[in-house]
Amino acid sequence: IFENRTTSAEDVISKAVSVAAEWKRAQLTEKDPATAASTVTSNCTTTRNLTNHTKVCTDAAWNESRQTAGLGWFFSDQLRPSFHQGSKTEVFVKSPLIAEALAIRQALETARHMVVTNLLVNSDSQTLVRTIQ
């Protein structure tokens, strides 16, 4: 069923970001108020009180044989579950960890251009999150 089917990394990441934003909008009600104050920087699906903060969730997909990566990110805040998203394809990427780092870098550059001053960065790469912390 999937044979001879080609999809660009940018299309895959764009779809993933779109679906993640849709899922996040469906999760607007928090059952436990104590959970809302927790900080989980390695899991973008965790809801958090974002008073005076903007959150960006990043992800990357890496193609080893082509040495390319698809990067994706979306921004949210207290009032808007997803107000800006983007995706990008990078070439000459040597590992999935580098791909995840590039996604964070791109999100940080985007936040700088948007003049975001208080930013919470989330990534699903626990290895990268631990390294940065």
TrEMBL record:
Pfam families: RVT_3. Transmembrane segments: none annotated. SUPFAM superfamilies: Ribonuclease H-like (SSF53098). One of its GO terms (molecular function) is nucleic acid binding. InterPro entries: RNase_H-like_dom_plant, RNaseH-like_sf, RNaseH_domain, RNaseH_sf. It comes from the Eukaryota. Residues 58-132 form the RNase H type-1 domain. This is RNase H type-1 domain-containing protein. The lineage of its organism: Eukaryota, Viridiplantae, Streptophyta, Embryophyta, Tracheophyta.
